[in-house]
Amino acid sequence: WSVLKSGADQYEMMLYYKQLIEMRKTYSIFRTLNTAISNVQFAEGRTAITIDNHIGGKALVIANPTGEEMTYELNGRWNLIINGKDVMDAPIEYSDSITIPAYSAIVLVNDHCINNP
After folding, report:
1. Longest pairwise C-alpha distance within the chain
2. Do 59 and 113 form a contact (C-beta atoms < 8 A)?
3. What DSSP letter does each residue of 45-112 carry, written as one string?
4. What is the model's pTM?
5. Are 29 and 59 in contact (CB under 8 A)?
6. DSSP state letter for 33
7. Residue range 102-117, pLDDT digits in tens
């Protein structure tokens, strides 16, 4: 615990994990045991994972491990809740496409998750 001083990398990581735990508490799709998970691999390790809770809730996790940003075409309306290392204070809505920065991952949820957390 002595390394958890404000400004230290370990402290920043602890804060990030704390935000992830809060996100899991906020959105039930990340706590539901009977979800379906599908995975789509793209070139260079780029990945899109869809989580479906079978009652209308969906989450989308997109990882871009490359040194170049990528654009992902969205099907329907989605709400950005994690952008790289930033957990959003309020979701930001996207409907056509979204750009994922280099060496980053994002998490989006559909409107059902926003309206029925």
Report:
1. 46
2. yes
3. G-EEEEEE-SSS-EEEEEEE-SSS-EEEE-SS-EEEEEETTEEEEEEEEESSEEEE-TTEEEEEE-HH
4. 0.84
5. yes
6. S
7. 999 999 999 998 888 6
